[in-house]
UniProtKB/TrEMBL annotation:
Positions in coiled-coil regions: none
Segments crossing the lipid bilayer: none
GO-annotated cellular components: cytoplasm
CDD domains (alphabetical): SDR_a7 (cd05262)
The protein's name: SDR family oxidoreductase
InterPro entries: Epimerase_deHydtase (IPR001509), NAD(P)-bd_dom_sf (IPR036291), NAD(P)-dependent_oxidoreduct (IPR051783)
Residues covered by the NAD-dependent epimerase/dehydratase domain: 3-210
Length: 296
């Protein structure tokens, strides 16, 4: 297949591009900068210059491709409404371009807020609906196109897609430990995250494009639950700093923006995803990646 990928030089997107190219697919990647375009070209991918606000360019790229993987997001923490608006507009544009084609359209989604008190499953419906909701309600919007001749796939990524070079949540947690001289966890440390190695997540995206039916929700989850305390203890061992508990009112001060996520339960099962696609994660676990220096 010829696959158009947004976010093609991002943390997950760059691994997805490698996975697709390595499996014999052709890739066109969206590039906002000269550096991104150069990186894609060196891999053997085609380049489409533009960004999420270039809706005409997104539409044309989707029309030219046989599949679309949408991983880009503005992630503007200072202006979440703008991030949500841009995400909804991009998803609607890409999906409209594919109406009636039966071509696959995979988009990135998250696990936060799906359910409370238990791990989320693939059958759980996102409560985020409408343009004013998180990510602009893009998952539910996209899934509506499964009834319009688009093979829509929602890929719900674990909050930690980990590995050497990760600059996301775990990098911020490690940076806070380095700055404060202690590795901390919120409260009693029992809140937990699901996790998956980056290469395993990329392979799941490819398998979904190649074989998942329309309307499928896929969980990129290898480990169902790694507790905040386990994460903090691994960071503490790696940096050789004490491990401490933080009172709720101290979490934001210590961790910054990532604190509100570290204090949440974001866990999920991937049993149905594994059965559907024969996906068996083989990468290192989160604690292993921390202890072998991925964040040091």
């Amino acid at each position: 297949m010829h696959v158009f990928v947004t976010g093609a030089t991002g943390w997950i997107g760059s691994a997805v591009v490698d996975e697709l190219l390595g499996s014999g697919h052709e890739v066109t990647g969206l590039a906002r900068s000269d550096a991104a375009a150069l990186a894609l070209g060196k891999k053997g991918a085609r380049v489409r210059r533009g960004d999420l606000d270039d809706l005409a360019g997104l539409r044309d790229a989707a029309l030219d491709a046989q599949a679309v993987v949408h991983l880009a997001n503005k992630h503007d923490w200072g202006n979440p409404a703008e991030s949500n608006r841009a995400e909804r507009a991009a998803v609607e544009t890409l999906a409209e371009a594919l109406v009636g084609t039966d071509r696959p359209f995979a988009l990135a989604a998250g696990l936060s807020g799906l359910v409370r008190g238990r791990p989320a499953t693939e059958s759980d419906v996102s409560p985020e609906v409408g343009p004013d909701s998180h990510r602009g309600g893009a998952e539910n919007l996209a899934l509506e196109y499964a009834e319009k001749g688009v093979r829509v796939l929602s890929v719900r990524f674990a909050p930690s897609v980990h590995g050497p070079g990760d600059h996301g949540f775990l990098a911020a947690i490690t940076a806070a430990a380095r700055e404060h001289g202690v590795s901390a966890y919120p409260g009693d440390g029992t809140t937990a995250w699901s996790a998956v190695a980056r290469a395993d997540a990329a392979r799941l995206v490819r398998l979904g494009l190649e074989g998942a039916p329309a309307g499928t929700k896929l969980h990129a989850v290898a480990e169902e639950a790694v507790t905040a305390r386990e994460i903090a203890e691994a960071v503490g061992r790696t940096l050789d700093v004490p491990v401490v508990s933080l009172a709720p009112e101290k979490v934001a001060e210590h961790f910054g923006f990532v604190g509100r996520f570290f204090a949440l339960d974001m866990t999920a099962s991937s049993a149905r995803t594994r059965e559907l696609l024969g996906w068996t994660p083989s990468g290192p676990g989160l604690v292993e990646d921390i202890e072998t220096g991925a964040y040091a």
